[in-house]
Amino acid sequence: MTLPRLILTSGEPAGIGPDLCIAIAARSWPCDLVIAGDADLFAQRAQALGASVRIERVGSRSDRSAHRPGTLRVLHRSTAKKVEAGKLDSANAGYVLDLLDVASDGCLSHEYDAMVTAPVQKSVINDAGVSFSGHTEYLAERCGGVHPVMLLARDTLRVALVTTHLPLHAVPAAITADRIREVAEILHADLRDKFGIATPRILVCGLNPHAGESGHLGREEIDIIAPTLADLRRKGLDLIGPAPADTAFTAHMLNGVDAVLAMYHDQGLPVIKYAGFGDVVNVTLGLPIVRTSVDHGTALDLAGTGKADAGSLIAAIEMAIQLCKTRLQ
């Protein structure tokens, strides 16, 4: 099989992204791993951390090369302003977005087989005058305006979302038959095509407490969710639900289930992050490319201290390699 080639965007320069990139460079990886970021910043941060790393600048069309432990292969992009660990500067927002652009464009052109993203600081990008709600939505737009689906995964537990970054008061109106149908079909297709699960089985949560309690606690399950799931079952999808969210994650309910589809962000993600924060992987489904990410933020207070945990980034790279293998088989 062709050696997978991954591009890793180093994220917010004042956060722990550069620290994590330096940390993972020391490991052995069965892939070509290219880091998008400022080579000078990596050198400065490595010195501050007391880390020994060889920095090798590569071009956008360089040959594939198996990762060598201790080497950071960098697709260099310069920050606009000098970076101080832990200190945000909106002048560098364009640099952060440029890393995402070069990585996503490279994946779309098949120069890279997958992209992995270190955390960005949404607030500083918005402070720079750019409307930015997150990696998921931004990359969907870069990939032609496709519908993205957020999936968090840890071992065999996978949680996808019908809605993502919405205020809670806006969620009920966003739970429509069309949206549920589109998300469920994308989840089913990518579990099959990207994860290699031949016949995915998906547990779908209700929106209301007790899945509406037969309409006494809300009618979304009766009027919208259940009829949509019935229609999808007729099309061949293996769906359970709508299930009460407070029992959906019990061992009995998860037996034989390949993924849980939650209605909103804080219905599903607290459970999986409690189960394994630090090695949960964020996977964007519905894209024509493979994209994985960490499950945490920029941790500005840890930047440059040597205390950042690379566990989630390690898991994200491992997941990207596995997804590449499934696609390249």
Structure description:
This protein is α/β, with parallel strands linked by helices. It has two domains: 1-146 and 289-329, Isopropylmalate Dehydrogenase (3-Layer(aba) Sandwich), CATH 3.40.718; 148-286, Isopropylmalate Dehydrogenase, CATH 3.40.718. The chain is 38% helix and 18% strand. It has twelve helices and twelve strands. The chain has a twelve-stranded mixed β-sheet with strand order 3-4-2-1-5-12-11-6-7-10-8-9, with helices on both faces. It is globular and about 60 Å long. The termini are close together. The relative contact order is 0.17. The mean pLDDT is 94.
Domain module tally: 2
Quaternary state reads single chain
Q: Helix proportion of residues, in percent?
A: 25-40%
In the CATH hierarchy, the architecture of the largest domain is: 3-Layer(aba) Sandwich
- Under CATH at level 1, the class of the largest domain stands as Alpha Beta
Mean pLDDT across the residues is: 94
Helix tally equals: 12
Please summarize what this structure is:
The protein is α/β, with parallel strands linked by helices and 329 residues long. It has helices at residues 17-25, 39-49, 93-108, 122-127, 135-142, 171-174, 177-193, 220-234, 245-248, 251-254, 265-276, 311-328; strands spanning 5-9, 32-37, 54-57, 71-76, 114-117, 149-154, 157-161, 201-205, 238-243, 259-262, 281-285, 291-293.
Keywords for this entry:
single chain, 329 residues, alpha/beta, Isopropylmalate Dehydrogenase, 2 domains, twelve-stranded mixed beta sheet, 12 helices, 18% strand, globular
Write the layout of secondary structure elements.
Elements: E1 5-9, H1 17-25, E2 32-37, H2 39-49, E3 54-57, E4 71-76, H3 93-108, E5 114-117, H4 122-127, H5 135-142, E6 149-154, E7 157-161, H6 171-174, H7 177-193, E8 201-205, H8 220-234, E9 238-243, H9 245-248, H10 251-254, E10 259-262, H11 265-276, E11 281-285, E12 291-293, H12 311-328
Parallel strand pairs: 1-2, 1-5, 2-4, 3-4, 5-12, 7-10, 8-9, 8-10
Antiparallel strand pairs: 6-7, 6-11, 11-12
